[in-house]
Sequence to fold (565 residues):
Amino acid sequence: MTMMKFSAPLSGASSLTTLLGVVSVVTACASEDPGNGETAPATTDGLATQGLPPNSTPPGTTADPTGTSFSPGGQPSGVVPDPSSTPVASTPAPGTSVPTTVGSTPGQLVTPEPSGGPVAMPAPSVTPEPGPAATGTDPTLPLPDETNFDHCVYGYDPLPSDDTMASGPALYDANGGGAAIDTIVQPEVLQWMTDNKWQGAHVIWHAVRGCADGTARGLLAPLGYPDICQDYPFLVPADQNCKTVGDGYQFLLFHRHMIESLKQLWPKHADDFDGFDKFPTTKEELPDIWNESDPVWNEQILDAAAIGDNIEDHLDLFPDEGSLGFWLQCPVGSRAPSFAPQLPYVGLHFNLHDQWSRGATSDHGLNNGQVNITNYMFWKLHGWIDKVWEKYRVAKGLTTDEAAVQKYKADMVAQCREMDTEIEILQQMPGQGPTFECPPEVDETGEYHEKIRPIFENERNHCTSCHGPALTSPYAGLTLGGAISSKCVTDSLNRESISGGQFKLVEPGDPQNSWLYLKAAGLAESAGCVDGTNACNTATMPPSGRTMTDEELQTLYDWIKSGAN
Fold:
């Protein structure tokens, strides 16, 4: 058995050269105000001059080996890859799952040595010689070779670690002593994600979809690049977070691209990146450490889950893939745009994230958008969403219609191109990394510290898993707790809300005009928010729905009423 302790590249706080500690939507947590409504189209001017190397081809719009030009989040133009030329990754059955063991030292990951007999090596990939394309393929489509390999078109080859890596989740003990064990992906996957800037790219992908409503900066600041919206405007899609059918569709595409990439890199461990076969309602359906009791869901969530599990019987609810993506992705209380006014309950994505969140106690927390793709359960829940989408596509005939297949393949390539562009930006920019806006204080007292802060930090509300200090991910620039002084928190609350229209976050003496209270109480939608510079988003916080008890809400109300000190 090998004991592994995370070094700097695998810790929570690091610069952009060690991005493991730096995600979606999403990030799992929504920003303070994820945003609904209309947005202005993104600009694409100046692509070739946005800080890219001299004489290089700007990522995201370059003519790729198919001869097709793509722009991030947009539609391709020109020739579309022939579906017959796009290989399908082989996914042999994974090996026997080997349980991992938890260490007692903070920040330790313990994994076993591989067991069992010899593992068959995959057949070596054959590199075709340049020349005419094979019969049945697009003759304009070049075949890959060692110097011209496009993973967006051809996928990834398996990594050598596919033969040696343990199966199933690794167990991570952030604090030592077994108090907050979390399930994460195996160390080899963690290291690959770090080396290839996946955490940061995942963050940017979600963040640029909040550029229009101002929520992006809270996600980008921990990366050390708060101005990406201004510096790289070509990255900002017209489809912004939970506002359009296009955003719902891109959400599905992007997360499928990541899932398929991991399955291609580790095909013998494909089950580790596969989702729940059905929405989990019993402990027997869960991995170890999560299977001590059944998940707790209310009746509304279970009704929505039944729609997802039987999506082929509910096609009338979702006129297109984008409306399905909106329904699956967006937070509780999001108002469905006009494209699908009949949508049922919205919020399953966040319900699933919240169910297995360790809050702010884990460096790989499922609700910490900076790192949540390192959590094993991230892939279980997003894999379930992906399976619902695929059942929908089959039932609608989108997997057999030639035009639909061509469009789908092009759209998948476009999402891959966008992620590669974000990775290239991260690789080019040195970055300063996150910093504390102010240090924790010792022996603090006061009403916020003693009564209000525990409400935001408890495991049921887990507000600070999203709204922690800059070091951990201050969604929407809103910090409510974590490794920061209570005085710093209260000093920062008397300001305009990012997406609360005319409301301040906290209006001392007036809780009914304090966006923080209205959002937590589920009263924002009826509060009369007026769209202005800060566009209104009235969804309840947390995104999975109200969690505070009546007593906690009354305590928060009374604190604001008394002056919010």
